[in-house]
Amino acid sequence: MKYEIILTVNGVAYPVEVDAHASLLHTVRDQVGLTGSKEGCDDSECGACMMLIDGRPVNSCSYLACQADGAEIITVEGLAPGDDLTPLQSAFLAEGGVQCGFCTPGMLISATALLAANPEPTPDEIRVGLSGNLCRCTGYDGIVRAVSKVARG
Amino acid sequence: MTIAEKPFIRPDGKEKVTGVGRYTADMNLTGQLYAKFRYSDHPHARIVRIDTSRAKAVPGVLAVLTHEDVPDVLYGGMVQDRRLFAKEKVRWEGDVIAGIAARTAAIAEEAAALIEVEYEVLDPLPDFAANMDAGASLVHEDWETYGADDSLDRSGNTLGHSSIVKGDADSAMAGADVVVKSRFVADASQGAPIEPRAILAQWHGDRVTVWSSTQVPFAARSGVAHTLDMPESHVRVVVPLLGGGFGSKCDFHFEAHVAALAKAAKRPVKLVFSRHEEFVAPDHRREGMVIELETGANRDGTLVSRRGTLRLDKGAYCGEGGFFAQMAAMHACGPYKIQNISVDSYLNYSTNQPSSSIRAPTAPQTCWAVEQHMDQVAEAIGMDPAELRRRTLIAEGDEGPAGQIFDPIGIKETLEAALDMIGYGKELPDDEAIGVACGWWPSFGVPSGAYVKLNGDGTGTIITGAMESGTGAVMGLPLLAAEVLGMSPEDFSITYQDTDAGPWDMGSSGSQTTFNNGRAVIEAAKEVREKLLDMAADELEAHRDDLELVGGAVQVKGSPGTSVTIADLAGSGEPILGKGSGDVPEAPEVEASACVGRLGMESFLAPQLITHAARVKLDRSTGVVRVLEFAAAHDSGVIINRIGADGQVYGGVMMGIGQALSEMTMFDQDGRQRNPGLLDYKLQTVSDAPKIDIRWIEVDTPNAGPKGSKGVGEPPSVPTSGAIGNAIAKLVGRHVDRLPMTPERVWETMHTEGE
Ligand code: FES
Ligand code: FES
């Protein structure tokens, strides 16, 4: 049985039909057509699929699309409103926080949520805040530096 | 400010941080089907019968393929021991028996389960060390009939034996002041990129395009051509953005399976691995090893003799890892002056997942063993371990394990730098200690090519066969072209990762991109430069020797008023193209006639040298070790892109810490993986990351890559676990002899009596 729901992604409402068990990640990637959010594990282990749901970071692979009906969903594609990068996106690039970039969408979502909740986190708070996101390339150093830089303003 | 110090934003950065960049799994084609594999049901069995009729009958299934449906071709790097689809036997749990293409992934999965396979189950042969014993059952009964590289010393389950022999190790051992013996066992581990692999194939008549998350598009292309029996010109491999590899996406893997399915189904076919498959199915993981070492030393630190026996787990097939025995043997010697050496290294088949290159293959495990062994030697002669290294590390003019005479080399400087950064000798709480380890890794000189062309507005395009796995190596190529042409790096676009566009390249493996492709890009840019000078000489009516390229223009030296912009020259309509490959540097010739299984690694071209120092904290009640502070000093020659090079060290050290403390693929008694998931495999998280200090020792190395650079990407994982192991041993009182050094193993080592 299919459910008709409305996913509001990055400010745009998308009516979609989904199975009860369809994940938000697959629905956004396959039906909405935004592939910025990545699937690294489909099991809440890597954080590459993170999206903001009403401002809260969630692993969208383990979140039902139906649960997100009517919520405000932000994906990595929705972070920068115009053509300019957000300070966090720029800092990730300047500080070497991006290598292969596969973890980056989830990291940016996580970091955005962290800074919204705590605009001046200590390095330790940054580490705790990002500990649900795995990165195999950067050793995390450039990522933590990027978030600290933005937090310091 | 040197070129390395200028802030440089990677050209692929914006698409990566905005989420619009496309990785292979993000691509879809009209009419595309989804592929699934039916894997073996047993690690070791003879195939009696395969029946695909029920799978083929499932509505929505458009193709089911087994070995009967593709050319009967054996493939593999140094030994051709494998087929796309298993025929007579399965040799590990990931052997592919059949491929299915269906309208949805769920239908393909359902059909895969309906394939009936009748087996004659054989005893699994997971014990790679015992598999070389006389009388052991064979993983490959037909090993003698396989095509193989002549230099390999093969017999039975031993795919390759290599030795390093120097002087007379036995009699020297007998005359040493002390003799230290150790045995270490390293478990398997994984590359574990965050992007699971994906492949998409589409035919156009009798030609196929394959989009693949591979690190080696040209190897993938020849793999497809070879196994499907078609010319390379009919196969185009394109790599969209690659989500990391660390070696695990080297070699030809599943491109031909997917291409064959697409051909049979007459539709594009897409394969996307689950995380479970990414662990279990690739013929790629870091090899387990059993390492036995014996060193004779004199009280003044002189290393008079080293004997070693290494056994490595090749798993079921050769893949591209046929060189491992010799590489491990070189690491069993390490960057030390040792007077007499006899090391034998055996790469053995087993019915485990095949091993192949993962970031500096064989080196981290061997180095972990050797560096702990060196600390044991230091203890036996009553010398500080750093002092022992100071006295025995190689320097310019010293002789390597197989007789190589070293050019200027910065290993001793890396030692001093690491000791300085970590504050070696400083007072520490009694649950903390500092460990030090040294290591090395060769640069690989291989052919590589690039084109540079100028656009009408004076910008440029680099067309390269090189592969960007995330490290930034390809992204840094504009720095090199820009310098030759007096342009700025931002002026260049890069066409890359398309086998129909760029010249052949070895791919993102062996830390070789800057080393070899950098050379090619510089050569290509120089050809463009010559052309520009000719054109400008005409235009300015000046002698070309009086001209220089500065700030996007060609000008008379010292006279910026007399100039013509590159845009004006390029805009004239005359094509301005350059191509380059450059001369491939070669490793020094060595005699080494006593060595067996010589594969070219008995001497190291432009070696990269490393010292790591780790300050760790041990919780004595649990055995949990935390790395608090880390110092990494590297001689990688001249650094071209500092932010990129630092990034390799941060990432490589974290990978090394994972290998040291938590990462292992556990096999059950039959050789099946017990922890094929990220949670149980235990990658390091951001909370585990210590403060990492980096220092580059920029030795001017003859025979190096562009501008005196060497490789950068692999060394950062090499001595990491050795440094951590030596720190742990200071706290525990003895060395942990199993890798990774998990809390259980550390705790057990603390509570075991006697040595
Ligand atoms: S894909 Fe959702 S956490 Fe990994
Ligand atoms: S940049 Fe590659 S996984 Fe983080």
List the helices and strands and how they pair.
The complex is a heterodimer of chains A (153) and B (755).
Chain A: E1 2-9, E2 12-19, H1 24-32, E3 50-53, E4 56-59, E5 72-74, H2 87-94, H3 104-117, H4 123-129, H5 141-152
Parallel strand pairs in A: 1-5
Antiparallel strand pairs in A: 1-2, 3-4, 3-5
Chain B: H1 13-18, E1 33-39, E2 45-51, H2 53-56, E3 61-65, E4 89-90, E5 96-102, H3 105-114, E6 116-121, E7 158-166, H4 169-174, E8 178-186, E9 198-204, E10 207-212, H5 217-227, E11 235-238, H6 255-265, E12 269-272, H7 275-280, E13 289-297, E14 303-315, H8 324-333, E15 338-349, H9 363-380, H10 385-392, H11 411-422, E16 432-443, E17 450-454, E18 460-464, H12 477-485, E19 492-495, H13 513-540, E20 547-550, E21 553-556, E22 559-565, H14 566-570, E23 577-580, E24 605-619, E25 624-635, H15 642-661, H16 678-681, E26 691-696, H17 720-732, E27 738-739, H18 743-750
Parallel strand pairs in B: 1-12, 8-27, 10-11, 14-15, 18-19, 25-26
Antiparallel strand pairs in B: 1-5, 2-4, 2-6, 3-5, 7-15, 8-13, 9-10, 9-12, 13-14, 16-24, 17-18, 17-23, 20-21, 21-22, 24-25
Helix pairs in contact in B: 8-9, 9-10, 9-17, 12-13, 15-17
Q: What does it look like?
A:
The complex is a heterodimer of chains A (153) and B (755). Chain A is an alpha+beta fold. Chain A has two domains: 2-78, Beta-grasp domain (Ubiquitin-like (UB roll), Roll); 87-152, [2Fe-2S]-binding domain (DNA polymerase, domain 1, Orthogonal Bundle), CATH 1.10.150. Helix content of chain A is 33%, strand content 18%. Chain A is built from five helices and five strands; from the N terminus they run ββαβββαααα. In chain A, strands 2-1-5-3-4 form a five-stranded mixed beta sheet, with helices on both faces. In chain A, helix 2 (87-94) packs across helix 5. The N and C termini of chain A lie far apart (50 Å). The mean pLDDT of chain A is 96. Chain B is built from 18 helices and 27 strands. Chain B is 25% helix and 25% strand. Chain B has three domains: 32-122 and 197-272, Aldehyde Oxidoreductase, domain 3; 289-444 and 589-750, 2-Layer Sandwich (Aldehyde Oxidoreductase, domain 4), CATH 3.30.365; 446-580, Aldehyde oxidase/xanthine dehydrogenase, molybdopterin binding domain (Aldehyde Oxidoreductase, domain 4), CATH 3.30.365.10. Chain B is an alpha+beta fold and 755 residues long. In chain B, helix 5 links the parallel strand 10 and strand 11. Classes of the chains: A alpha+beta (153), B alpha+beta (755). Chains A and B meet through helix 2, helix 3, helix 4 and helix 5 of A and helix 1 and helix 15 of B. One FE2/S2 (inorganic) cluster is lined by residues 39-42, 44-49, 59, 61 of chain A.
